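Subject: design request, 245 residues
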């Protein structure tokens, strides 16, 4: 329809990068683009920690499940939900901040997601590629300590950025009529449509891996959701002052 929609529809996760660096002025321009994202009630509750290559980055790669591209990507950013500056704003006006609400946790986390998506799209518009790193939450307390994150700040995810050194196929998404509902939530045809989609995803994996992986979307999801999902997150968030009430 237009170049921007074409860019959005061409998104792929890039995990292999050339050695070509990204200059700091570009990084700052990308982060500034992130700041332009929508923010709930103007709270601007996202902070970004840029981590240089070296021992600290290597430690983060190990904490994220030994994802080595965390170590080798030219740029690695950690997006943090940050309500600490809001405490400062209250202190500046001798106001007692009411913190710990689940709504604050949601809005701060959503701010980070919107901010980061702007960064990714801006990067792709420059010919760069990247991949989000939710694996930081595998060892979130250790990541928080390593980055010296104070109370009311927690790491939501990371982002590797660089010049792509691979050209993967675009991963097929769910059928539009499964996602886009009209007037009410009607899932009467979803099982049939997802079965069709499963065949597409199975072929995608088979082609991508040269036959080493053949798995449908529903198989992947059902295998994931029978396991615990980072049960350490809730006590960690409580300890950071989030989602207490």
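Subject: RE: design request

Done. Sequence follows.
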């Amino acid at each position: 329809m237009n170049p921007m929609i074409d860019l959005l529809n061409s998104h792929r996760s890039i995990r292999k990068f050339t050695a070509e660096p990204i200059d700091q002025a570009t990084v700052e321009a990308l982060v500034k683009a992130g700041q332009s994202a929508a923010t709930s009630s103007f709270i601007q509750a996202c902070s970004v920690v840029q981590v240089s290559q070296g021992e600290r980055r290597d430690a983060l790669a190990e904490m994220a499940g030994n994802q080595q591209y965390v170590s080798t990507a030219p740029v690695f950013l950690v997006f943090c939900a940050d309500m600490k500056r809001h405490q400062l704003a209250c202190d500046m006006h001798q106001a007692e901040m009411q913190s710990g609400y689940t709504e604050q946790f949601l809005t701060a986390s959503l701010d980070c997601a919107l901010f980061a998506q702007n960064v990714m799209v801006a990067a792709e518009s420059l010919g760069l590629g990247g991949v989000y790193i939710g694996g930081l939450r595998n060892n979130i307390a250790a990541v928080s300590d390593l980055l010296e994150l104070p109370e009311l700040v927690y790491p939501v995810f990371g982002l590797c950025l660089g010049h792509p050194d691979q050209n993967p196929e675009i991963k097929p998404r769910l059928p539009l009529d499964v996602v886009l509902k009209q007037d009410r939530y009607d899932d009467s045809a979803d099982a049939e449509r997802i079965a069709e989609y499963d065949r597409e995803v199975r072929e995608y994996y088979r082609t991508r891996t040269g036959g080493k992986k053949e798995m449908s979307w529903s198989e992947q999801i059902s295998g994931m959701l029978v396991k615990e999902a980072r049960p350490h997150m809730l006590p960690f968030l409580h300890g950071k002052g989030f989602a207490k009430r």
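The mean pLDDT is 97.
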